[in-house]
Amino acid sequence: MYKEICVKYAPNKDNLIYILHEIQDAHPQHYISAEAVHEISEYLKLPENHIYGVLTFYSMYSTTPRGKNIIRLCESPPCYIKGSANILRKLKSILDVSVGDTTKDGKFTLELCACLGVCGNAPVMMINDDVYGDLSEEKVEDIIDKIRGRN
Amino acid sequence: MKYYRSHVLIGISETSLAAGVESFVKALRAQLSKAGLSDEINLLETGPLGFFGKGICLTVYPDNVNYENLKETDIPVLVEEHLLKGRPVASLMLESAGKFSPKFNYASRIVLRNSGIIDPESIDDYIGTGGYEAWEKALTKMQPKDIIEEVKESGLRGRGGAGFPAGIKWGFTAPLQAEQKYVVVNADEGEPGTFKDRLIMEGDPHQLLEGLMICARAVGATKTYIYIRGEYKLCIMRLQKAIDDCRNYGIIGTNIFESGFDLDIEIKIGAGAYVCGEETAMIESLEGNRGHPRSKPPFPGIKGLWQAPTVVNNVETLANVPFIIKQGAQEYKKYGTPQCTGTKVYTILGDVAYPGLCEVDMGTTLRTIISEYAGGMQKGFKFKAALVGGAAGVFLPEKLLDVKMDLVSLNQYSAVLGSGAILVMNEHQSIVDMLWSILRFFRHESCGQCAPCKNGTQQLYRLITKIKKGEGTMEDVDLMQIIAETMLETSFCALGQSPIMAIRSAIENFRDEFIAITQK
C-alpha cells in the first residue's frame, strides 16, 4: 500500500523526506510503520538504517502509532513566559496522559514542540494543521471539548 | 478597472486565522451583499496589516481607519455605521490609535512595502506596484558582475543572524565554473520568537521570489529551492501560487524575456529541526539525510548541494534585493547607518503593550522600538530586560536600551542582532527561569553529532535546573559559563556556540539574581 505513495516521487534519496511526510499523513494513526520503512527502502534502494536515521532525527515524524488528533504545544521561551507550563498541566489533566502519549480512546496525542512562529499569540498550540493562540486554561478545555464532540 | 467607493483590507495571517478570520470574511461578505454594498465596497484579503492589532484586524480606505479584535457579532454595526453611513465605529477602532506614534510599525518600508496593501495571492497586484521591474532590469540590462557590484555597494548584510555581506557571498560563487549551481532560500525560521520571514512570505511572496531570481542570475544558478518549515502552511500555499503564476507569466522558466537564461524555483518542506537553519545542515536535509552540519571549509558557496556551488540566503536578505537593483545602491544606503545599511524587520514580544512586528532603519535604538512601535511596556509594568535574537541571543538590561540596534554597534557589547526577535521581560519575570527555558530548548535541539554540544547542552540543562530549584551554588553558575565557553571553542556549528550568549549576558547583567537564588 505504501508503494502507491512512493511512486509519485522519483526514486531519489532527496525525496525521502517528502515520501515520509506523505506516508505519515495518509496513515490514520499518523506514524511510519516498519512495513512502510521496508517498502521505502526497496523503492529508494536505501538501507533501512538510513531511513530510520532520518525518521528519528526530525521531530515531525513518529515511529509509533499516534492518536487521531495530534496536539503540539509550543514550549519555547516566548510561550514559556506567557504561561505555557500551566497550559501543559491543564492538557495533561483533561486528557489524562503524559507528554508523548495517546489517550485511551485514541483521539489525542500530546506532544511538545519548538517555536511555531505565531509568538504574537503566545501561548500557542497546533492541533493537526490548525493553530490555536492566546491560550488560557478555560480556552484549552473548550477546544478539546469541541474536537471531542466532532469525532 | 472597477471603481469602488471604499476598500476594506483584511489581514490574513496565522495570527488572524487562529482568531477565526475565515468565517469572519464569509460573514462580512454576506452582510455586505445583504446591505447591497457588494459593488461599492471592495473586500481585499491581504497579508499582515501595517499596525499592531489583536485578533482579526482590518483597515478601511480611503478613510484610513483601523479596527482590531473584531468578532462576527461586530459585523452588522460595522457595515451599517461605517461602510453604509460613513461613520467610523469608535468602540471597535484600534485601541492603540492616537495613543502612540501614528506611524505604527513601518518607519521605513523596503521589505514590507506591499505587506497589508496588496493581495499577496495576486501577481497582477505585485506587478501593479512596480514588481518584477528589478528582475527585468537585472536580466536584460545588467551583467551578473554589475548586479554583484550593486549589491556589494549597497552594503546589504545577511539578515539570518551572522550578518555576512551578501554581495561578497555571491562574489565567491559567481566566477566558479560548474555544470550546475544552486541558490537555496533559508525559510526554516526556527529561532524562538522570530516570525519575520513568515510575515514577509505571507504578506508579499513575490518580493522574495524576485530577490531570489536576481540572486540566481547574479551567481549563474538555474535551479533554486526554498527550504521552508512544514508548519508554515499559509506561506507554503501562497509561495506555491506565486511560483505557479510566475511560470504562467513567463517570468521564470526557459529563455526568460528572450535572454537565454533559464530558471526554476521549487519549494522544499522541512520536517522540524532547529539545526536545519544552519546552512550546511539544511543542505544535508535537502539531500535526504539527517540534518547534521558539515565541516567548513569548503563553504557551500564553493561546494554545497550535491557538491555544487550553492548560495544560501535568508528570506529577509533576498527581499531587500529588488529595491537595491531597481532604485540603486545609493538610494538603499539612505536607510540605516553607514556600517550597516538598510532596514531591519523585528518581531517584538513579551510584556509590551502591543506585541507584533516593525520595520525600522538599522541602528534604531531598542528604547525607540519598544516605546514607539510596541506602545511601550504593558500597563503597570516596568522594563527589566530584553532577550534580543531569540534563544541564540543575549539579555540586554535597561542600561543598554540606548544602544543602536545594528550588527556593528551590538558587537561592542558582544551582543548580536540575530534573527530580529525581541522578547521583553517585566520586573516580575525571572532571568533564571527564562535561561532555564532557553537551555531546555538547546538540549532538545542539539543534533547530537559533536560531543561538546551533545554533552554540553545536557550539562547546562542539568545545572540550570538545579539552580532554578534553589539547590545550586555560585560554583554551579560559574561552571555553566565555563562549559558554555568550552562549547563556543569546540562545537562543530553555531548551535553549540550559541548558549554562551544568553548565559554570559544573564550572569554579567543579573548576577544578583543568581546570588539570591543560590543562597535561598
Give a brief description.
The complex is a heterodimer of chains A (151) and B (520). By secondary structure, chain A is α+β, with helices and mostly antiparallel strands. Helix content of chain A is 44%, strand content 12%.
Can you describe this structure?
The complex is a heterodimer of chains A (151) and B (520). Chain A has 151 residues and is an alpha+beta fold. Chain A folds into 2 domains: 55 residues; 82 residues, Glutaredoxin. Helix content of chain A is 44%, strand content 12%. The model of chain A has no long low-confidence stretch (mean pLDDT 93). Chain B has 520 residues and is of the alpha/beta class. Chain B has 4 domains: 87 residues, 3-Layer(aba) Sandwich (Glutaredoxin), CATH 3.40.30.10; 210 residues, Rossmann fold; 84 residues, Ubiquitin-like (UB roll) (Roll), CATH 3.10.20; 88 residues, de novo design (two linked rop proteins) (Up-down Bundle). In chain B, the strands form 3 sheets. Chain B has a 5-stranded mixed sheet with strand order 10-9-13-11-12. A 4-stranded mixed sheet of chain B has the order 2-1-3-4, covered by helices on one side. In chain B, strands 7-6-5-8 form a 4-stranded parallel sheet, with helices on both faces. In chain B, strand 3 and strand 4 form a beta hairpin. Chain B is globular and about 75 Å long. Classes of the chains: A alpha+beta (151), B alpha/beta (520). Chains A and B meet through helix 2, helix 4, helix 5 and strand 4 of A and helix 1, strand 9, strand 13 and helix 16 of B.
